[in-house]
Amino acid sequence: MLVLVFVAGVVSGTAPAVAAAGAQDWSEVDAFVRGRLDATGTPGAALAVIEDGRVVHQRGFGEDGRGRAVTPDTPFLWGSLSKPVTGLAVMQQVEAGRVELDAPVRRYLPWFRLSDPEVSDRITVRHLLTHTSGIPASASGEIGDRYDNAPGALADAARDLARTEPADRPGGSYAYSSAGYAVLGALVEKVAGRPFGTYLHQQILDPLGMEHAVATERDFARERVAPGHRSVFGTPVRFDAPYDTSGVPYGHVGGSVKDLARFVRAELGGGALDGRRVLSAKGVAETQRGHVDSSADRYGLGWSVGTLEGTGERMVWHDGALPGHQAMVVMLPDSDRAVIVLQNAYHQLRAKEFADAAIGTAQLLSGAVPRTTPVDGFAVALPWVAAALGAVLLLSVAAPVLRRLPWRRAATRSRSRRRIVVTTLASAGASLAVAAFLWWLPSALGGTLPMALLWLPDVGWGLVTAIALALLLAVERTVLGVLDLRRGKRSAGDV
């Protein structure tokens, strides 16, 4: 039929028009992505669609953190999409015979340890790759996001795990851990004898033609990576963070959507692109195979593995985030298709909404109804709740001004000493309990207060303010109680 159409076009002189009509219309995809960006308040993003081993559509949306239009050449940081890159680097060492997946990590890094030496001795390379090492998820907050670019920063971060208490035996359970990937980066550094970022350039990024990829502090400066955006009371606010050499293996690889598309094409192509091979097809298949059950489907050696909702098609994917950046790759190997979305904003409590841009586009291209997650009312309300709590505590601290009024002084004189003591202890104790609860709350949610300040600044500063006011209130109530006792004693003496 295509031949007949083409012949008819030649005869009628309309062949070019027929060819143009055959081009795919991407307006529906672009409109969907634009809608998801509007829903999350994301200022800028880049999209790429890969089919049959080539990029068939790519474009930019909105502006970067410096007010420039986003294009397919705009650099972003990829967050945890660094993990598949690290997984590939480790597998290169496996195929070169320098590393064994089931060998103890201490064979390559004798200094590696957790607080339990016995557990440390049993952790293998595979355990780290599949997040089953026993290193708790909270360890990522303890050693991550330190923005350390000094020589040896990556190894120093991994060494700091010596203070970490293991959460389970190695191989016992899945616990997503960026800290484990920091150890893998240090392992590659040691085995390869060069800094991790340098290794990535020489063995993966440069061979795949990822010309503007970011894996070192120098790359970050050269590519002039624009600030991302954090949410402050629902408004995207620029966050101009420095680079973090200590976090490259788990979160600080970056580049344009064009760069990431070349990496994904190599993944879909069995480890090769444009005649350059970075890993065997068997090795790539091993990274994309689900090895363990995870919190989201199954996890391989750097990739999550599951099915695309609405079609049931096998899906190999990973998302990533840093304060101010979000990225996601969705690969559908059976149909040789992939979707990439990079965004210059992020909200930790609305992660699923940000992921909709890539997941929904993949569904749309596969003929399914695209996912659109409703706005999380809790995430929107939480900063305001923290601010309201701070306001209430501030009013409580200011309330003793009323004691200057005559009727308040009279009320104080009329109270018994026992009542003053009980009231003071109850008030101060309640204030200390509030401060302790607010300090504990981030850890109960799997983080720390410093992490809240970094990832959710409005909530974090609200908590810090409320904790400080609660402590101040406890001190104030104690002091006022002592003054009331003295005043009451003087009044009794006068009588």
From TrEMBL:
Q: What class of enzyme is it?
A: hydrolase
Q: What name is this protein filed under?
A: Serine hydrolase domain-containing protein
The residue range of the signal peptide is 1-19
Please state every residue range assigned to the domain named Beta-lactamase-related: 29-354
Q: Which PANTHER family match?
A: BETA-LACTAMASE-RELATED DOMAIN-CONTAINING PROTEIN, D-ALANYL-D-ALANINE-CARBOXYPEPTIDASE/ENDOPEPTIDASE AMPH
Highest taxon listed in the record's lineage:
Bacteria
Query: What Enzyme Commission number does this protein have?
Result: 3.-.-.-
| Organism of provenance | Streptomyces longisporoflavus
The entry lists its GO molecular-function terms as: hydrolase activity
Record-linked InterPro entries: AmpC-like, Beta-lactam-related, Beta-lactam/transpept-like
Indicate the transmembrane segments per the record: 378-399, 420-441, 461-483
Keywords attached to this entry: Hydrolase, Membrane, Signal, Transmembrane, Transmembrane helix
